[in-house]
Amino acid sequence: MTDILPDTELMTGYDVEAALTRGLLIDGTPRRVLFSEAAIAASYQAERLGIGPHPLYFLAQYVRAGGIAAALDLSEPVIGREPGELVRGWLRAAAAGGADLRRDVLFARWLAEVALLITMRRQVREEGR
Length: 129
Prior knowledge:
Layout: H1 7-11, H2 16-25, H3 29-48, H4 53-72, H5 81-95, H6 101-127
């Protein structure tokens, strides 16, 4: 079992790309980490660069329909240079294991989870006002 990392540690310095590559290739602990710590860290990284949930939900649907390789061919997976670089890094990490329909579906699920985490944090912040 892995140690639980505090959100402050997940907000900076967490290697989401490495967790993506491992989690999409290896079931068990790496997959659980992908859908927990890595998703939380990715949601913080995305929010810090101004990526909202809707572009990530859209990208998840695109990956479901065409696969990771098709998403990698997008000229701008999300709007903006820095946000695009972040998401393109996730796409490259997800594609590192080669073409596989199961990994495409898992990655699409992961993107949707990252979007959901952003949505939930926004709702909590709005309710706190």
